[in-house]
Give the backbone structure.
Amino acid sequence: MAIIAKRPDSLREVSFTYCPGCMHGVAHRLIAETVDELGLKNQMTGVAPVGCSVFAYKFFDFDMAQAAHGRAPAVATGMKRARPEMNVFTYQGDGDLAAIGTAEIVHAANRGEHISVFFVNNAIYGMTGGQMAPTTLPGMKTTTSPYGRDANDIGYPVRVCELLNTLEAPYYIERVSLLSVPEIIKAKKAVQKALTYNKEGRGFTFIEFVSTCPTNWGLDPVKSQQWAKENMIPFFKPGVFRDKGTEGGQK
Amino acid sequence: MGNKVLMKGNEAVAEAAIRSGCRLYFAYPITPQSELIEYMAKMMPKVKGTFLQAESEVAAINMVYGAAGMGKRVMTSSSSPGISLKMEGISYLAGARLPAVIINVQRGGPGLGDIQPAQGDYFQATKGGGHGDYRLIVLAPSSVQEFADMASDSFDLADKYRVPVMILSDGLLGQMMEPVEFKEYKTDKEIEELGKQHYDWCIHTNEDGKGHHHNEINSLEIDPNVLERHVLNLEQIYKEIEKNEVKHEEYNINDNNEFVCVAFGTAARIVKSAIDDLNAEGRNIGLIRPITVWPYPYKEIAKTIHGNVKRVFVFELNLGQMVEDVKLAVNGKVPVEFMGKVGGLVFTPEEIKEKIKAYL
Ligand SMILES: Cc1ncc(C[n+]2csc(CCOP(=O)(O)OP(=O)(O)O)c2C)c(N)n1
Ligand code: SF4
Ligand SMILES: [Mg+2]
């Protein structure tokens, strides 16, 4: 019998802790498949954040670290500097990366640390039960913005790719979405590019996944995807912001 | 060996750390420790080490966490306000059982305080500071030589027990120049061997031919029963440390002491000259200087309180922090008097003599 689909080698046989319909699992799979394909498993390592993906350190089948909330880029910096022969990524949510960890991500990017950052933007604090995130959309209701996010009071959502794209050092910055199969296939290509650049020691690579949180959005997985397409995509537009590996460097 | 050089404490400890095999250093500038970070900036590239000026102390301690997780000797340094920022990371280091060295060149507080020497961070260093049940091994130097020697001691202790170690210094020791003698540089081969002792738990490639491993650098245990085991295991390690690693200095401690003083670090230097004067006048006063302030020399202090000792004096550059540990050690056998100096000021031997003479 031919095997046409299987668990990637780089994922351990440990059950995910994610809700049904959550996209963290999809993002994990894209990373694990790519690590396998690039033959990186033996020198790969990563940093799990604080957020729903806090247990990512258990899921990948290579050595992993778990960082304090927001500090993964600093931890990854120390790791890469200590063992440059290894390939290092961080995996972070929007609260982790764009609120409490803003300084760490901006400066890791600005130094051009030779790491890959996988950023899962679901516009909410999933793990702590649906509070407002720095990426929560204007008008969007969360447990800490019960009347809807008032942009005049608390500001507009942070567009991280655009922000990092003002810096000189980053090598590759792309925003993709996980909202449909074709989008996931595109996302896979972005992950492949990021980890290939990582393997080649080109510099700092950053992928944002526009994602969903059915549980805290109070929508089923299909409706969540629809909602995200209609509301998140217009604000967080997918695209390549920076690719120094292509002719001309920038899109 | 054998060659004495005149150096500031901040530079001496940095040089000694490099000689002990530290090849990774992450920090953020702050007075009065800036000579340390500047020395590292200058010297690390010469030994093909990593010097990185982080964006904050928070980032620096997390870089330390990352590098320590790779099983490498790594250090950071700061002064009081910056050490407060490192507390989150220190708790994580302790929770994840990572060996690392942190230097605090203390200054006056609270808040921004000033940039003069102080010992106001004793509680923070020895009683917690970060969250959760954890301990740091805390070494308190009292001379530039000792400050430098503590660099290699602290890396050895950190490696031996897989715990973070702090050197609790102050602005005076950091800035002061004294002759210092260094140990030989560890060779690259020796440094590599040091790293290998951690291969059973640290992050490293799967290319060492010893079979596949999945090591986790982590302080999270979501199951209370598992976390309980983890914390009780930490407790066992801390008990081992308390049993094996207490260090103190006795200065004119004898069976006929009428008074015993207790002081650490810079304060102890001044107390020594004060009691020298008093002893020259015919008194018999001794000094106990804790070298490890955690684990604390409770038993060693208790042993000196015999029938002739009438009183114990504690001198600190704070409002009275270590005095609580001295009282635990003395356990009510004799009165314990305290004299502190704050604001980044340092008491004179005269002030100390006056305090003691009031009880003659
Ligand atoms: C210092 C600190 N502050 C707050 C928390 C609580 N906390 C845990 S996860 C989280 C938010 C995570 O949200 P996000 O990064 O968006 O990840 P998601 O769960 O949505 O994937 C918060 C605030 C913490 N663990 N540590
Ligand atoms: S709470 Fe949201 S982000 Fe977290 S696992 Fe569930 S669906 Fe995913
Ligand atoms: Mg989120």
